[in-house]
Amino acid sequence: MAEIENKLIVEIEEVREHFSSLMDKLIKDIKRQEKIMARADKRQKKEYDELQQRLEEVQKLQLAQKELMDSFIKIIAEAIDAKSAYTGGHCERVPEIAIMLAEAADKSEKIDFEIHNDDEKREISIAAWLHDCGKVVTPEYVVDKATKLETIYNRIHEIRTRFEVIHRDLTIQALKRKLAGEDEKEVDEWLTKAHQQLQEEFEFIANVNVGGEFMTDEAKEKVKKIAKREWIRHFDDTLGLSYMERVAVENKDKTLPAKEYLLSDKPEHIIPRDKKEIEDFKKWNFKMDIPENLYNRGEVYNLMVNRGTLTKEEFFKIQEHVVMTIKMLEQLPFPENLKNVPLYAGAHHETLIGTGYPRKLKKEDLPIPARIMAIADVFEALTASDRPYKSPKKLSEAIKILSFMVKDKHLDEDLFKLFLESGIYMEYAKKYLKPFQIDEVDISQYL
Amino acid sequence: MENLYIEATKYTPEVNLDAEKGLIEIRGKSYPENTFEFYEPILKWVEEYFNCCAKDETIVNMEIIYFNSSSSKVFFDFFDLLDENKDEHKIVINWIYDEENETAEEAGEDFIEDFEDLDIRLVVKEQ
Lengths: 447, 127
Description:
heterodimer
């Protein structure tokens, strides 16, 4: 029995020892597990802090980039406004109208349009700021062309004319001396009449040059008739020219003296357009008719301009600004949240019926912000008081013109009504129009 | 004994176990989806290496950028394994970390504290 007992005790001892070592191991394991967990927690906290810190840095950077981008946009807009007095503060004021109208459209139940977040609002604002960015490349002399005959001018021509005059003065002086014996009275009467007619003709041409009145067929005939007056040129008109000008007169007959017309259209007045430009237009899906020539400086040609001062070539050059706007903006890698900027900015000269430019878009192609841009653009241009070429329109006149454009389906009717109903037109007028411009407007007739 | 090489992935480290050179290297991030499954062949290799073919000196290079807690558990088991073999074999463990990675540095310090008898050296990675 004792033997069995002893054996049992030994076994129990063994089991106990085994158990005890197992327990030790288990305790060690649990402790280790606790340690691992505690360290993991510590590490996680640290990693989280680091991530948080990085996130803050990224956010800071994002904000800085956003600010930088906004500043860039404003610089471009200011550059355009500063480039020409004829644009005045246009680029700066259009966003004001656009944002006001977009916010009103968002609230309105009649218009299917919502601004879901700040990014969408920013997209509209940026598009409005940049809608004329293409104007940076429009030549100033075209934007600012104040008279029909105005151009970048090589004054050698003017100086040559003075030589011509002195040449005549000398001839006249000689003739006078020679012909001292003629009937003085008769000659004087003739001369007075001739001088008078010349004065009148000059006044007529000078007046046509300003471009204030529509050119009737009668006026055109008169220009042509006056243009036919002849004079004799004694000097070489191919001297003192720039390289490009010289190329244009390479094959010209240089015989002197030469008969000249008072006003003329000469081959060298035409500056041809690069064929590549026309191909490029197709590639970009621009659907405007492109004039064959880049410019035509012909004197009669320019004086024949029906209304205003711009030839069709120059008119195209002006319209091309929106082409440049699109080209510039479509090349920028706008992030997803700003991807509509080129569309919003580049469609402000489109109409609802496909008669606008440069892409002849239609209503269904034009999202609400693009249509807003068109209204803002026209209204600002009409009411601006900082353009040297025109007196600012009164509020009632500007709204009447907008209403005509609505009737012609150039501008969106619902947005126009909202523009009036919401009182945005008045809010804007109070801020930017001169007091004399703000007259009584009966908006009920348009609603 | 065959060498074992495992390429790094987004979540697992590069593993280079070279019996001829007596080299055990684990470099990179350690967030395996199934940690024990990932490390099982590695621990097995190490065990076998010490059983049959260990060199006079074994160099262990560990450069762990980030690791999860189950990896941490595996590292303990790994160090246990080294601890069991340290008397018969010379083992040098380099715990390599980037100067800017404080977490990795602290983890190395913790292991030194836990395994006083192992020759664990903190090595700042050369830029």
